[in-house]
Design brief:
It is a single chain. The chain is built from seven helices and three strands; from the N terminus they run αααααβββαα. The protein is mainly alpha-helical.
Length: about 180
């Protein structure tokens, strides 16, 4: 939760800095450069979008997971609407949208697992999910015929399985891979 709050805080501050730059640009458009209604209108739109985005991110920084999940469409709307803004704010909005959706997806996945650390086996692949504080990683390793036969041989040499069990398991493994 700390990473998403930090992301929202940094993004909100960057958007407000961009809004200050838009105010400067607006004043220069009105007072210094040749007055152009189009430039003033575009700069005003940039200013409004930057302010709305920055303030919203700073407010949503204090939301809990349930509210973030409930209002996650706001981040998508800001990412799309900031296409009409300057490049910095659009990149920040896009970054926040990705970060929030990743956080929600990770939280939902971790809630689904509810403390388990499952191992998935499919098509002779074995993958383990490692849960971190704010993320998860799928660690996979390929199971090969050679490694499986070596494992059986080791069990047989340690006398943990009989000769008959070894031959049967060996035959089953070979059948599985061939």
């Amino acid at each position: 939760m700390k990473k998403i709050k930090r992301t929202l805080m940094i993004s909100g501050i960057l958007c407000l800095v961009a809004a200050l730059l838009s105010v400067t640009s607006l004043l220069l458009d009105i007072l210094y450069f040749e007055f152009s209604a189009f430039d003033v209108a575009m700069t005003s739109i940039e200013l409004a979008l930057s302010l709305a985005t920055g303030i919203t991110y700073l407010i949503m920084m204090n939301f809990e997971y349930e509210k973030l999940a409930k209002y996650n469409m706001i981040f998508t709307v800001f990412a799309i609407s900031n296409i009409f803004n300057n490049l910095l704010v659009w990149i920040v909005a896009f970054w926040v949208e990705i970060a929030v959706n990743k956080y929600i997806r990770t939280k939902n996945f971790k809630d689904m697992l509810s403390g388990q650390n499952p191992i998935f086996k499919e098509n002779n692949y074995e993958s383990e999910i490692v849960l971190d504080d704010d993320d998860y990683t799928v660690v996979g390793k390929k199971e090969t015929l050679e490694s499986k036969l070596a494992e059986l041989k080791e069990l047989h040499e340690k006398n943990l399985i009989t000769d008959e069990e070894y031959e049967k398991l060996r035959h089953d493994v070979i059948e599985k891979y061939i």
